[in-house]
Amino acid sequence: MFNYDQYLRITKFPLIWCPGCGDGIVLKSLVRAIDKLGIEKDSVCMVSGIGCASRLTGYVDFNTLHTTHGRAMTFATGVKMAKPDLHVIVITGDGDATAIGGNHYIHAARRNIDLTVILFNNHIYGMTGGQVSPTTPKGMLASTAPYGSMDHTFNISGLAQAAGASFVARASVHNGVQLENYIAKAIQNKGFSLVEAMSPCPTAYGRRNRLGAGVDMIEELKRDAVPYSKAKKMTPEELEGKVVTGIFINEEHPECRSEYQKIIDRFQKEK
Amino acid sequence: MSEKSNGKARVITGNEACAEGALAAGMRFFAGYPITPSSEIAEVLSAKLPKYGGVFLQMEDELGSIGAIIGASLTGAKTMTATSGPGFSLMQENLGYAVMTEVPCVIVNVMRGGPSTGLPTLPSQGDVMQARWGTHGDHQIIALAPFSVRETFDLTVRAFNLAEKYRTPVILLMDEIIGHVNEKVYLPSEDEINIFDRIRPTGSAEEYLPYEHTKSRVPAMADFGSGYRYHVTGLAHDETGFPTNKSTEINKLMDRLDQKITMHREDIIDVDEYMLEDAEIGILSYGSTARSVRHAVRLAREDGLKVGLMRLKTIWPFADEEIKKLSGKVKLWIVVEMNRGQIAHEVEWAVAGKIPVFKVNRVDGDPINPLQILEKIKELANV
Lengths: 271, 383
Prior knowledge:
The complex is a heterodimer of chains A (271) and B (383). Helices cover 38% and strands 18% of the residues of chain A. Chain A has 271 residues and is of the alpha/beta class. Chain A has one domain: Thiamin diphosphate (ThDP)-binding fold, Pyr/PP domains (Rossmann fold, 3-Layer(aba) Sandwich). In chain A, the strands form two sheets. Chain A has an eight-stranded mixed β-sheet with strand order 2-1-3-4-8-7-10-9, with helices on both faces. Chain A has a two-stranded antiparallel sheet with strand order 5-6. In chain A, helix 6 links the parallel strand 7 (167-172) and strand 8. Chain A is globular, with a radius of gyration of 18 Å. The interface between A and B is large, with 41 and 44 residues. Strand 2 of chain A pairs parallel with strand 10 (231-233) of chain B, so a sheet runs across the interface.
């Protein structure tokens, strides 16, 4: 039996997350990945923004930084640039990273700075009561989209890839082991790494859209999941409503802090 | 305005002096976004910081710039960003975060005309109240305003010392004139500069309280990665740093955040008195505007008028006690500033009707002329 307690601030329990929420599964996968890599707790800095997922930083025994809405990526950039020895992990959600924080997200990926971003995608603003998010599927209901969401949704993983991230993967909470493996790979990658974790919100999204309880929504994620290898052979029509899981990119290329170090070293040599 | 020192003479701008002062204070992390009239600070530091082993980062916007310097400061670095009006507006959100989480950092605002895009290349002092109350919620803030190139160097060093001493963001309110004027200066050598470094915890990690209610009201601050694993949040928190909704804990936090500045006001507030000893007319000013006032005071003295200047080097917290003390000794105040009277209201509040307060203002991008001030002095001297 894995000892989760060694990584958790148990005295801060119970968690703020609702029954049936998928975020706890991501949390478990995350600490197992860190444990598997044998990383010291002191050398992990976890940075989050605002939202349900972002409350995770309060529950884990690392150097933790719960910041402002959308800005986690910028604080994390500061931490990494100032102290490159730290493993900097960003905890964020679909609204936090791609709406209010969209620009920071794009530029952190563009710099390929060595951050590991765990982005919880639940298609909704859960904490504020179920408002429409940039990933709410078209036609679905939200408290601020009572007639159905009208907008095209963000492809979060595709966005990171296009901007310059060197590791991009998507997994779902129905497969915690896969999620753990991807997170471990993401931490190991020296560069901007994204793991998009599909996580159900039965309270603020599922109930309004009659998707059932948390377990029903996880079952649905399992049914809709298509491995990337298989998805490559499918047409866009066939992929409609599916959740493609897998590693989309895993290529090492020049990393921001390491490149900056080369400039610093140039002057150290001159001395 | 070039105080002699051991250093060699140089002709530099205020923006360059700010960059030099920051490096002298130990600043090793700068993040910023281009904006007139502050960009030279970033340009100088982009060339110099790697030579010091430090980091320069151009961020995607000002929201990101201040986020990055707060993150970097938590690892133990002394950090700074520099901007101007519109960028300063964008920083207000995380300025409040730095106040709440007590993260030392320096935010330079080289003031230009506003509101909005306003007058990008022309001076103003229109952000004085934004510096005080721009971020939401009740809070204290420290803001300093230099009036010369050399003083920009000195107050930049001081801004870092105050930030480190009181675990708080400090705003350096320059203006376009100070930022761009070239002056001959003798910058002090390393051994002439006093540096204050934040107090770090020495006890056990288990007992460390990152937001401890200490006697000085300033808690010790651990670097991320130094073995003291703790939580930082902009939510109201208790002494352990974790969120709380308990009114007793919230009151304790809010009182401490207030007291750590107000209890130390004597240490923080710095005013310069010029020919005030026998003055009957007191002028209050700050930043580049105070230079015009000095000239006006000298001209008035030539005409036998007893006029003096109180110059605020510390804008916030406000020097209300110092002003109160002189009110009565001077029979009236004239507040001279490049806005519509932001500090004048504070002066009125301080004197509480005891003596009259008059204003000389300008908001059209032109500096206030000494003769404009002299005219006001003469008008009031005849009353």
